[in-house]
Specification:
single chain; alpha/beta; Rossmann fold; two-stranded parallel sheet; 9 strands; 20% strand
């Protein structure tokens, strides 16, 4: 069996998913093909190091501004070349990814949706919700992050029998190995990064949707109440709001 695993763009946190799936495919005699619409997006400017072979279908632009005609023919060529038995797709938007679903559907290739969407992030109403129902209903199955995502799909008419948990995952071996290195020389890393003894840590893109400004405001209230014994706050990340947040 040939399995195609597709993302809008391939980021560092997709690596654990892809490597784990590749390992499972190898033990079962399947072949995994990994693809991305573009190398990076406007809000995810990264080029992760990985030993995976990733087919990047469009060399310029981001997944949200690729011309639809270019996306259509890119997906058509990709499916013709690899002829996957199933396509596993991260999300159903933007339109460049929706087009993949349409092309695969036309070729009668089963599709599995991977999603972290839930009622708290849903913004569609009326006709858009109807359109989302139609799109989701065409998928053969779904892999979700957890109960909120499962409940949301079911509210849109997706059969619970076709939903499985397990989309959210962590490369525990990687973090275990890196943590061991740091624990072997904690003071060295503390000096290197200028870290206090006790601190809250947040790792995120510094963009509006992450609400780091709200975090800083909440931390200020905490600091004012606790005083000098308060933990520090360490923020790791970059993005369009970096200057304003600093």
């Amino acid at each position: 069996m040939i399995i195609a695993l597709v993302f809008s763009s391939f980021g560092p946190y997709h690596r654990a998913r892809a490597l784990a799936l590749r390992q499972i495919c190898a033990t079962k005699g399947h072949r995994l093909v990994v693809a991305a619409m573009t190398a990076a997006t406007l809000s995810h400017q990264w080029s992760p190091e990985t030993d995976l072979e990733i087919s990047v279908l469009c060399s310029s632009g981001s997944d949200g501004d690729v011309r639809l005609s270019e996306a259509f023919w890119a997906w058509t060529r990709f499916l013709r070349k690899h002829r996957p038995d199933v396509v596993v797709i991260a999300g159903y938007w933007p339109l460049s990814i929706t087009l993949l679903s349409a092309v695969a559907l036309a070729r009668r290739t089963p599709r599995i949706l991977m999603t972290e969407s839930h009622a708290g992030t849903a913004k569609t109403r009326g006709l858009r919700t109807l359109a989302k129902r139609l799109i989701l209903g065409s998928f053969s199955a779904a892999l979700v992050g957890g109960k909120p995502q499962r409940d949301y799909l079911q509210s849109l008419g997706f059969s619970p029998a076709r939903i499985r948990d397990g989309y959210d995952c962590v490369d525990n071996d990687l973090f275990k190995a890196q943590a061991a290195i740091v624990r072997a020389a904690p003071q060295e890393f503390q000096r290197k990064y200028g870290l206090p003894n006790d601190f809250f840590l947040t790792v995120a893109r510094l963009v509006p949707k992450k609400n780091i400004e709200g975090l800083i405001t909440a931390y200020a209230h905490y600091r004012n109440r606790i005083g000098q014994n308060a933990f520090h706050l360490v923020i790791v990340g970059d993005g369009e709001l970096a200057g304003a947040l600093r």
